[in-house]
Amino acid sequence: MKKISKLLLISILITALFSGLAFAATTNLNLDGSIKALTTNSKEGRSFVAGSSLKSLGLDFTLNQNTATVKNKEVEFKFILNTNKVKVNNTEFTLDAKAYKSGQETYLPLRFILETLGYDVTWDKSTNGTKVVKQSKITYPVTIESNGIKYTVSKEPSTIVSLAPDVTETLFAIGAGNKIKGRTQYCNYPAEVSAIKNVGSMTDPSIETIVDLNPELIIAATHYKEEVLKKLETAKISILAKESPKTLEEAYADILKLGAIVNKNYEARALVSSMKSKVETVKMYTNNIKNKPTAYYVVGTGQYGEYTAGKDTFVAELIRLAGGINVADDVTGWNYSLEQLIDKNPDILFGAEWDYDTMTKSSNYKGLKAIKNNNFKVVNIDLFSRPSARATDEGLKLLIEMFHKDIVKKLSF
């Protein structure tokens, strides 16, 4: 009898959290060593939890017209019913799942809530069940190591100069954009950055301008010069210099670290959860595709050589996730050659407008079938040059539209 009950429990967990069927069930969730009974509903491959059962997770739930509010002493969620919009501590995020009402119950995305609260939600093959484990909380002092140098932030900075576009985008995405008092000329998103002081380029910013701003912290990423940072250090300004993420997993970890630095842990976890769920939704549609087009991301071309995304870059990962084959998976880094490109002869090229002009006007590329078939897609390269949330929210979706138009219509983000 015990064995039958255990099998039944596992079956409920599997169905509730991972199936595409839509029906209410009672799910027993092992959380912090305690079994929590939750009313759940599965819809479109996502698990939703009834607002009325959130009290067992230490959360208060209220419904006011079309806004469902979930909160405890530290965090507040505001879900807008029948949309994929949610605010976490007043910072807005876009999900791939919509909160909704069914009968007298309001259903909210369970995984998003748990991950924002600081839990890892995974599938445990050993038990064929869902595993919910509390993450290690990132607290001050926050240390990041880059190129053998350790940078430590001991307290929440009130003012920041960002020397990298992906840092700027991430800080705004987690609700810390108001801390940025200086940014580079390449930090052009979101629109609010236009009101922030321009300190120059990433590699050669104006030291005088930065010193005048007197920030508590400077954050640089990849494209910086050590000598510039050393000059800023002599001005007694704290510096954090980090490498840009090469994979989505590294991007997730990067966002969580930045969130901890600016005391936006819940918002950072919410952003990462929203990105992960979109990636998993895409995988559900693209994993078993047999006819995958070959693609080549044009980072640079022409007289200065060929540059693209090798297999160890996050752009290559996005191409694979979107159901394409990255022709430059035979190299690492960003260097390629004209001979390799001609030999691979990809189905699709995508890149900036100036690279399109170079390739379509030069005889070197006229033999490529992507040029012959007018399959060079001009894109906003910011979506692919910055490992930020826009890479999954917009870049990944754009690639799917290039590779498999029928799938992009099924996505809910």
Structure description:
- The protein is of the alpha/beta class and 413 residues long.
- The protein contains 14 helices and 25 strands.
- It has helices at residues 2-18, 110-117, 165-173, 207-213, 226-233, 248-261, 265-286, 314-321, 338-344, 353-361, 369-372, 382-385, 389-403, 405-408; strands spanning 24-31, 34-43, 46-50, 60-64, 67-71, 76-80, 85-88, 91-94, 100-102, 105-109, 119-124, 129-134, 142-146, 149-153, 160-162, 180-183, 197-198, 217-221, 238-242, 294-298, 306-307, 325-326, 335-336, 348-351, 376-378.
- The strands form 7 sheets. A 5-stranded antiparallel β-sheet has the order 1-2-3-10-9. Strands 4-5-6-7-8 form a 5-stranded antiparallel β-sheet, covered by helices on one side. It has a 5-stranded parallel β-sheet with strand order 17-16-15-18-19, sandwiched between helices.
- A hairpin with a 2-residue loop joins β13 (142-146) and β14.
- α6 runs antiparallel to α7 (265-286).
- The longest helix has 22 residues, at 265-286.
- The protein is globular and about 65 Å long.
- The relative contact order is 0.09.
Regions with little confidence, pLDDT below 50 for 5+ residues: 1-21
Q: Sheet with the most strands?
A: 5 strands, antiparallel
Rg, nearest Å: 23 Å
Beta-strand percentage? Answer: 25-35%
The counted number of beta strands is 25
Question: Which whole number gives the mean pLDDT?
Answer: 91
Q: Quickly count the helices.
A: 14
Task: Tell me the strand order in the biggest sheet.
Answer: 1-2-3-10-9
Structural class determined from secondary elements: alpha/beta
Distance between the termini: 44 Å
Which percent range fits the helix content? 25-40%
Global outline: globular
